[in-house]
Amino acid sequence: MQQFYSGFGAIIGRTNVGKSTLLNALAGEKVAITTNKPQTTRNAIKAIINRPNSQIIFIDTPGIHKPKTKLGETLNETAFETLKQVDFVLFLIEANSKEIGPGDKKILEKLRETNKNVILVINKIDLIKTSDLLELIDKYQREYDFIAIIPISAIQNEGIEELIKEIEKILPQGPAYYDKEEYTDQTMRQLVEETIREKALNLLQEEVPHGIYIEIEKMKKRKTKENEPIYDIEATIYCVRNSHKGIIIGKNGSMLKKIGMYAREEIEKMIETKVNLKLWVKVQENWQNEDRIIKRFKLK
Ligand SMILES: Nc1nc2c(ncn2[C@@H]2O[C@H](COP(=O)(O)OP(=O)(O)OP(=O)(O)O)[C@@H](O)[C@H]2O)c(=O)[nH]1
Ligand SMILES: [Mg+2]
Questions:
Q1: Which CATH topology does 5-170 take?
Q2: How far is the centre of ligand 2, averaged over its atoms, from the C-alpha of 186 (Å)?
Q3: How far is the CA of 20 from the centre of ligand 2 (A)?
Q4: Which residue, by CA, sits nearest to atom 16 of ligand 1?
Q5: Could you report the per-residue pLDDT of 8-57, keeping only the tens digit for each?
Q6: In this structure, which ligand is nearest to the CA of 160?
Q7: In this predicted model, what pLDDT tens digit does every residue of 70-126 receive, in sequence order?
Q8: For residue range 161-199, what is the model confidence (pLDDT) as tens digits?
Q9: Engineering a disulfide at 217: which of 161, 163, 197, 234 sits with its beta carbon 3.0 to 4.6 angstroms away?
């Protein structure tokens, strides 16, 4: 009988380097939301990839950054805790960075502590000339004994197959941990919350996006008069200031309408059912420091 291989791998890196974009490229599906704003990812999110002789479970993690709130500290902790639970690590950096900054130094320190198989993945090579990479590679090679160094462009799907091949070389023998049909561990509720957050993050500017979180109040399937299935979904966008609430609602409700429209379109595609989406906005000033709320971003 042919051998089967499987394993868990964490994707770690500073915020905004493209970890979630890489997760989606590896999965060939949209599993995690991605935006051009830092600190987008707030949970360790799994994507399950099935190959003929292997199953690889990738775990996307929140980006490492200098925390300003308890939420920020929790996000960093979640990322570093994930490192301990995996068989291998993809350490993601940006091709256009010149130096090893404090965030990457901290990550290298944690990698040395956990002593895992680490692949250095250099993302966003579409932004540079490949010859410029040599210096960066040299700097990182002095810091850690990586099992491989792979340049990629997650957004252009470049280098992804090479990366998977490299991972397959180090996968231990093991069973398929998840059903072939499963592509993520997120619940439908989480996927809906994240979709709304992505649309809000994309449309909002400056400090407003960092201060929001989404809560689903209601999600119920029913039949329309025409006997068609439809989901009624009600969700609240929480923000940290009254002025932010005004911005999120927008003139005559125009911003909230836009967020709702984009989110509804994507949710409908995702669950292949019509959706009636109602959004509310509420202020909860200090939620980023409240244990009751930020515990949902801790590793389970
Ligand atoms: N040019 C270029 N941009 C990329 C590439 N990969 C990701 N990006 C962009 O980088 C930004 C951040 O991407 P994310 O995938 O959200 O980054 P992340 O590391 O998950 O960020 P956090 O969740 O905040 O830690 C987005 O605007 C992406 O479109 C790439 O290969 N090339
Ligand atoms: Mg992310």
A1: Rossmann fold (3.40.50)
A2: 15
A3: 4
A4: 34
A5: 999 999 999 999 999 999 999 999 999 999 999 999 999 999 999 999 99
A6: 1
A7: 999 999 999 999 999 999 999 999 999 989 999 999 999 999 999 899 999 999 999
A8: 999 999 999 999 999 999 988 999 999 999 999 999 999
A9: 234
- CA of 7 from ligand 2 middle (Å) equals 21
Pick the residue whose CA is nearest to atom 26 on ligand 1.
36
What is the pTM assigned to this prediction? Answer: 0.97
| 83: nearest Cα among 13, 182, 139, 136 | 13
Contact indicator for 163, 153 with CB cutoff of 8 Å = no
Maximal C-alpha separation, the chain: 67
Nearest residue CA, atom 2 of ligand 1?
124
Name the residue ranges covered by the structural domains of the chain.
Answer: 5-170, 188-297
Do the domains spanning 5-170 and 188-297 agree at the CATH topology level?
Answer: no
Q: Residues enclosing ligand 1, CB less than 6 A?
A: 13, 15-21, 34-36, 38-41, 62-63, 123-124, 126-127, 153-155
